[in-house]
Amino acid sequence: MKGIGGPGAARARKGFDWRRAVAGICLLAAALGCGAAQAEDGYELWLRYRPIEAARADGYRAFATQLLAGAATPTQAATREELQRGLRGLLGAAPPLAERVTRDGALVVGTPASSPTIAGLRLDTEGLGREGYLIRSVVVDGRKATVVAANDDAGALYGAFHFLRLLQTRQPLDRLDLREVPRLKLRVLNHWDNLDRHVERGYAGESIWDWHKLPDWRDPRYVDYARANASIGINGTVLNNVNSNALILTPMYLEKVKALADVFRPYGIRVYLSARFSAPREIGGLGTADPLDPRVRAWWKAKADEIYRHVPDFGGFLVKANSEGQPGPQDYGRSHADGANMLADAVAPHGGVVMWRAFVYSHETPDDRAKQAYAEFVPLDGRFRPNVMVQVKNGAIDFQPREPFHPLFGAMPKTPLMMEFQITKEYLGFATHLVYLGPLFEETLRADTKAKGEGSTVARVIDGSLHADTLQDPLTGMAGVANIGADRNWSGSHFDQANWYAYGRLAWNPDASSKAIAEDWVRMTFSNDPRFVAPAVGMMVASREAVVDYMTPLGLHHLMGRGHHYGPGPWVDGGPRADWTSVYYHRATREGIGFDRSASGSNAVAQYAPAVAAEFGDIARVPEPFLLWFHHVPWDHRMRSGRTLWHELVHRYTRGVDEVKKMRAAWDGLAPYVDAERHRQVAAFLAIQEKEAQWWRDASLAYWQSLNGRALPPGYAPPPKPLRYYQSLEFPYAPGNG
Ligand code: GCV
């Protein structure tokens, strides 16, 4: 591809030369100092649309000399408005609107129905569905043009955002031939937001949903939320916490839900609700919520009808049932399938779906917690209605810094499985630690379940292609537990915005590269200067491994403070449930450490396909990052590095802290390329991260030493404080607690 300043760039135009005028305005702006990096608070996310540097802007203007985009529907209007806003910001002025291509360099956006120009081009839009799009360099009536074409307004909206991204990331525009179709149908955010605006596991302030003022006050921020989501292809949002309150289903709240749905609709975003299974009792006046009771079924059907009267395109229900104390069908001796199917029948006439979570475990079940979801759900394979998806967390425990993929992936060939990732960093340093989750998401999606031989990746399970023989045209989807709150920068920190962004891009294409996504995000959010881009992306890509090292190296897991999950707590023991303690998971003794999930232990490995089970179950073959997840290992066990396990653990904890030090130094060097306001906050948060990484290392090592009685290998600094100091720390007001 050629650069952006192609032959069209320098072509003189007849009449008023708006490009020249714009260039003049930009020069004036630069002279007035507007070109300098100005303080930014992060509100604009990756949709900043800052002026393209003068040397390149003319080249880009040559590809937006006119804008042909309808506004006959709310989605078309939103698309056109976004293009005008984006091009105005990037190029200094929005191109004039036109009905026909009369100049070289027109930008034509729409569908064959909305645009006669697009209809006339007879592009091959087959297979694009409702949401796919093409971006092509074409010739219209002898004039060069760029067309963003789709079958439906939603696809054109996504294409418009993609076109803007090409400019934002400084891509060439002169020979475009892009074709994009989302691989997953439902790309959904899960807000764990309560009606009192507390966000469970939220680290970005209170909920953005101002329930009290809704429906009359619709905060303009809701539109920006919708724009940001649409820009990365997110097409659904579950408004309330899975630990749900039945009040959300009452008429007063449905009015509020309707108000939000009306704001989001033009951006292709459907609203869903977390349903409390016991709602028929709590707000319905029934004495039971038994899913097989005809009165209960009738109540849910009537409730669904009522919801659809408010929100005709309501997406459906998300349900957490019989998990962590939530009500569910098992309270009545019924199965998860009975519960899910009852709700599915209620929403089916309206085209709704049910996302039924597989995050179930009970401390009354004596078996390894990691095995319980599989044990409950695999026998139900094939027993769910077609409009039910079983929503499965990426790993079998709970969003740890590293987990092997959940054994349910690949094990339910007759049931659509939906991925659930956690974007908010409950176990990864809350908002202050810079941890880019793209590599974590990518690692799970690329993991090979081997359910049908090599190449049976998790991505192929969730996109439906792996089980195409047993599931025809299934629902497909991905859910991300949102990290969005009322904080001005949305996510609690500037770099946490990248996790929202990466989630959306990977939900669109689960095979995308997390590194390439990071690069796009860095360019859009901060700067295209290569002196900034490469080091910033480098920090992001390294950050996930760093947090694994300083929190839970080599397959350790669930070692954080009790309840709030802030900071190290490997000593956590006792309390109401063994499976909410750390000692349950690490099983460290004087002799060794780790959870034996091999055949000699809980045999959780047997839940994986035989080839994977053989690998995970063999201490000589298990990938070292999962060693202590699957095996109880003597401290003197020889690692592939030649170190003993104890030495390797000390090495990795220390390496994690060192990596954060490197991240800090790298960020310090990036000050010239970032506005001072954002630079200062990231630097301050990195300082917190370094302090807390050190704390994780020191507290963990002090605790392991108290069990194994070993000194640190030579050259490693001992923990500066005694174990009792770390154990004495308490954080009753740590944010996000449930
Ligand atoms: C919404 C973990 C979290 C809980 C969360 C639960 C879930 O246990 O700590 O806050 O509850 O997962 O995913 O349902």
From TrEMBL:
Family to which the UniProt record says this protein belongs: Belongs to the glycosyl hydrolase 67 family.
Name of this chain's protein: Xylan alpha-1,2-glucuronidase
Signal peptide: 1-39
Biological process (GO), any one: glucuronoxylan catabolic process
Root EC class: hydrolase
A GO CC annotation given for this chain: extracellular region
Domain Glycosyl hydrolase family 67 catalytic as annotated: residue spans: 167-490
Source taxonomy: Bacteria, Pseudomonadati, Pseudomonadota, Gammaproteobacteria, Lysobacterales
Boundaries of every Alpha glucuronidase N-terminal domain copy: 45-163
Residue span(s) of domain Glycosyl hydrolase family 67 C-terminal: 492-714
E.C. number: 3.2.1.131
Thylakoid recorded as keyword: no
Segments forming a coiled coil: none
